[in-house]
Amino acid sequence: MSDTEDTLNGGRVYDPEADHAFPDEKLNEVLPVxxxxxxxxxxxxxxxxxAVTRKGYNDHGPKHIxxxxxxxxxxxxxxxxxxxxxxxxxxxxxxxxxEPVIIALAAQLHDIGHIVHRDNHAYYSIPLASDVLDRFLxxxxxxxxxxxxxxxxxxxxxxxxxxxxxxxxxxGVIRVADALDMERGRSRIPYxxxxxxxxxxxxxxxxxxVLKPGEESAVLVEIEMLxxxxxxxxxxxxxxxxxxxxxxxxxxxxAVNTKSDDRLVERIEL
Length: 270
Known about the structure:
Elements: H1 3-9, H2 25-35, H3 38-54, H4 62-81, H5 88-91, H6 98-109, H7 121-136, H8 143-158, H9 169-179, H10 188-192, H11 198-204, E1 206-213, E2 219-225, H12 230-242, E3 251-257, E4 267-269
Parallel strand pairs: 2-3
Antiparallel strand pairs: 1-2, 3-4
Helix pairs in contact: 2-6, 4-6, 4-9, 6-8, 6-9, 7-8, 8-9, 9-12, 11-12
């Protein structure tokens, strides 16, 4: 991503006009259509009902998906710039340009299983996403490539939770990016409704998350915490998802507590 993009938004929003460390033409063709797809948009709105309205959980709707999508593409871009070789598309005989398409589709669809139930939602996402992909992909791919793209997207969706380890770096990106949506805005709705569970309180403790090129690794994740409750987000969620993702050697995490009157935990490095 360009220096201008980093300056304007900290690399938080994918810019199709920016320079990237990967071939972006196919992604730039697919992404606007995906973001404007009526069925997908409706699914993203509907999936928040079980998660937030009925379960009182943190946001899993359109805003969460927007953040995961952009952080997944940012993470992917930094990994590519750092020389990481992705295997999902390549092992299917697809082009390098299909890697970010797989990542974008999986990021957008990974949580749609919530419309069935929060519990085990990754498994419910598979048949729902399969139907969407069967309709969506033929606009951009022939039958053989569409089947292979679909296979990689479904693998990444399934592996975004910790029950199954990713077998591709594309899937690893989705798993880690999902955990990178940890800032306090995500817990606004349950908090305002009186929710005080650990997911809500720990999310409220995270002020900012920034992804940037690392010196010792391809990616440095910098996290600003407001109190020690943020440790749960960093250690129990982000680190847990990084472990087994295939990205462990390429991503370094540094979390700093910037609240002067709370020094129970001042700094975490993973």
